């Protein structure tokens, strides 16, 4: 660690969270504790079909907290979905939100919260610290282990008209409490488990290398990398194992605490550009970019990337770089495509480079990448 990093002023924010088996059953009790007279339950169709929304609804009913349901949330939540949820929140006269699902319902719920309190369009909040009116209380119950929306001060929303993703960063987006229960994770598909796990890995690697890192974020980032490396391959093979699912959830928690406070880097900035135009899942997009960004950034923070590489251990007979170790790990999980085979076209690269530059996550990338270098990274990942 450099002396500059050690002495820079840093803050660390985190929500209250409870981890453990069946803590989702505490949703009703906490909704009542927060004084919620009527809850907007935000979820999506997939989570509803698996029965996790019903489990939370039962908990609310047992605590005698009435609720309305908003489940029109897509993967990569759209701005118009946030505004539709806000209208339901207003018309149902809710005063609190419970989000059940992966990053999409949780980010949508955060958007509903800030638009409801301010009565402004969600796109007006793009950027850092643009939320001036506190949103209503928010309880998050993640059903995936990767987005870390349940602990982070980030929300990412798709602006469909502009074919781009906007990033909103504000302390107001940190949930009031998160209930981290491994059981809902057991119904994730193999692909979702892998993609969300690679998202957690990308968060941890980018937070550790970030210009905004600190001793507090470093310990969470390194523990997250260690946990993803050990638990993700195991949980893919044994998806019903609650203890392995819990370790994945812990990996996501540590990664979330790290990146929420240290911010991210070029992988996320470049992935957001791609996801604005193409419907590729966020985790998969990061998985296809991460090793190329690490290779491009290496010289800016060699000791940091070497420490990450050391966690991956010796993976081949000959010495290989941290970026190559991440590539070996990716392939071991069965991710073998490229951005091109996932649908990204070469003629979109100038737009993607421009979008990546405008993304706030680029600000903390350890290396100031030129336009040509960002284009080269996209080229390498195609
Ligand atoms: Fe992410």
Short description:
By secondary structure, the protein is α/β, with parallel strands linked by helices. It has helices at 3-7, 27-33, 45-49, 52-62, 79-91, 103-118, 190-209, 215-237, 242-262, 266-277, 282-297, 302-312, 322-332, 349-358, 371-381; strands spanning 16-19, 39-42, 67-70, 96-101, 127-128, 138-142, 154-159, 164-169, 177-180. The chain folds into two domains: 16-185, Rossmann fold, CATH 3.40.50.1970; 188-381, Dehydroquinate synthase-like, alpha domain (Up-down Bundle), CATH 1.20.1090.10.
- How far the N terminus sits from the C terminus, by CA atoms, comes to 33 Å
Largest sheet: 6 strands, parallel
Main β-sheet, spatial strand arrangement: 1-9-6-4-2-3
Tell me which ligands are bound: fe (ii) ion
Shape descriptor: globular
- How much β-strand is present in the residues? 5-15%
Number of domains: 2
CATH-assigned fold name of the largest domain? Dehydroquinate synthase-like, alpha domain
Give the proportion of residues in helices: 40-55%
What structural class do you assign from the helix and strand content?
alpha/beta
The number of helical runs is: 15
